[in-house]
Amino acid sequence: MNVARLSLMLLRLGAAIQLILGVAFWTGHLVTAIPAHMAIGMVYVVLLWVIAVYALVKKSNVGLALFAIVWGVVIVGLGMAQRTLLVGDLHWIIQVLHLVIALSAMPIAERLAADVSQLTSRV
Q1: Helices 62-81, 91-103: inter-axial angle, 10-degree rounding
Q2: What is the C-alpha to C-alpha distance for residues 78 and 65, in angstroms, rounded to an integer?
Q3: Could you tell me how far CA 4 lies from the centroid of its own chain?
Q4: Cα–Cα distance between 86 and 84 in angstroms, integer?
Q5: Residue 60 sits in which domain range?
């Protein structure tokens, strides 16, 4: 199993945990777990970057790999700033945006990992 595949499996696990925690937060539960959510979110982005860097090293889908690195910065930036954005009745918009942006990293990572795996299986 290559680095990209292992990172992708961990990324999927992180996404599942993050979704469960996010739903709990939205329903007013487990708010004390927000620091854990943030830490797992950072690991999630680092795993995305690991896959992207691996793709860059293998010269596989370079454009998407560079986009994944930038997208990781966007995820972290929005995640860290979201408590201060649209505070009040409209905060749900930021929460949904955070969810969509973070989850949209999954198909990017899936594609990069598949491309790298396909490339390494040919060698």
Answers
A1: 150
A2: 20
A3: 14
A4: 7
A5: 3-122
Tokens 């929460």 found at: 95
Q: What is the pTM of this model?
A: 0.92
> Measuring CA to CA, how many Å separate 80 from each of 18, 72, 86, 88, 95?
15, 12, 14, 17, 12
pLDDT of 119 strictly over 80: no
The string of pLDDT tens digits covering residues 78-108 is 999 999 999 999 999 999 999 999 999 999 9
Answer whether residue 123 shows pLDDT above 60: no
Q: Which two tokens stand for residue 55?
A: 């793709």
| Number of structural domains the chain divides into | 1
| Letter string b/e over residues 67-83, b meaning 16 or more CB atoms within 10 A of that residue's CB | ebeebbeebbeebeeee
CB 68 within 8 A of CB 52: yes
Question: What is the average pLDDT score of the chain?
Answer: 93
Q: Closest Cα partner for 108 from 38, 39, 15, 1?
A: 15
Helix, strand, or coil (residue 61): coil
